[in-house]
Design a protein that fits this description.
The protein is of the alpha+beta class and 381 residues long. The chain is built from eleven helices and eight strands. Helix 8 (306-328) packs across helix 10 (339-352) and helix 8 (306-328) packs antiparallel against helix 11 (361-372). The chain is globular, with a radius of gyration of 21 Å. Bound molecules: flavin-adenine dinucleotide.
Amino acid sequence: MLRLTLGAELEALRQEFRSWVAAHPVPRPKSAALDEFQRCGREWQRLLASGRWLGLSWPQAFGGRGLNLVADAVVQEEMVRANAPQVLGLFGLTMVGPVLIRHGTDAQRARFLAKILDASEIWCQGFSEPGAGSDLANVATRAERVGNSYRINGQKVWTSFAHIADWCFLLCRTSQGKAKHEGLSYLLVPMKQAGIQVRPLKQISGDEEFNEVFFDNVEAPADCIVGQEGEGWKIAISTLMFERVVLTFARQLQSESLLRRLLELPQAEQFRDELASCVATATAVRALAYTHLISYANGKQPGPEGSLDKLFWSESFQEIADLGVRMLGSRAVLGEEDPEVGMYLHQYLYSRGRTIAAGTSEIQRNIIAERVVGLPRSGER
Ligand SMILES: Cc1cc2nc3c(=O)[nH]c(=O)nc-3n(C[C@H](O)[C@H](O)[C@H](O)COP(=O)(O)OP(=O)(O)OC[C@H]3O[C@@H](n4cnc5c(N)ncnc54)[C@H](O)[C@@H]3O)c2cc1C
């Protein structure tokens, strides 16, 4: 699999992290159950934070090391090499954390960032609604300023980890603008309060990772707005740009780790052409992601090019997961009880949602066509 050499300093960091991992046993889930995934992910994240191995690109004053996103990527690669579990607070680490660093106040950074790093506070993303998915600017959840708070009423859907989240970064409407994307604001909302109802939704994989969330006169302190009232669209787009590059990078490595397992199966020889094709794509996807991360390390802000990463990763992940169940044959279904075997079917089912979450493949293609390649908007001549 791809092994890029990234310069002496980053290679030294890689070696330092390898030695640290060797001295700190990685927690392993005892089953494929979601609870166990969460327990393990929290424990691993706490351990990493104690060694300052998360948020390496974050300012030192807020628990980071003042490095860049390529340093974070190198550490993530090593985590996959060590077959480590996924950390629990991914939405905090890859979305709201970077957004607060870029758009938040000093008070917000001081209040939230350290607790994101060590998983003492878990975040969920309150963007999608029954009438606002691809057309996100259609958000109808309302927030009204009352004294020193915002009062929130409405409904979100597909909210991953809302059932365990302490905070939600919420896109909501604070006024009626001329255009749909005007009048939106970006609030940080405490989840553990009366008025919030979280109802789990069962996925095809059997997991209950995402939820419907109902807000009935819910309060958020007025100083929990990110940016100004009406700037929510700009900040939501910024969040999505981070999601499509930084979160995708972490997920891309997880799919490479699945691919590595396929390469080790006894039947690999029979599937050599398809495996080779998956390795070639995975290598290209990671190289592409690195070119983006390196450009951000050189000062560029994340932009629409992240849609390339998200599209190619999610579609190639589905190919890898599909190949996995075909290689296992009937065992993939019949061996569900054995976590080692059941994992292949679980990944296959789980992979279906990945071309939908964070913007569907059709939406990514539209963004690439219009904002990366510069083609006319769809419907324009
Ligand atoms: C596993 C998973 C986790 C998720 N987690 C979260 C979360 O934590 N927080 C959150 O806020 N949301 C989350 N989502 C929701 C996700 O962002 C939305 O499902 C996604 O944006 C699509 O919106 P929708 O489901 O409303 O589909 P729709 O927008 O209704 O789209 C339906 C279909 O129409 C197509 N379509 C729509 N518009 C166009 C267009 N202009 N051109 C071409 N085709 C189009 C779409 O591609 C799709 O195939 C999650 C989704 C999944 C699957």
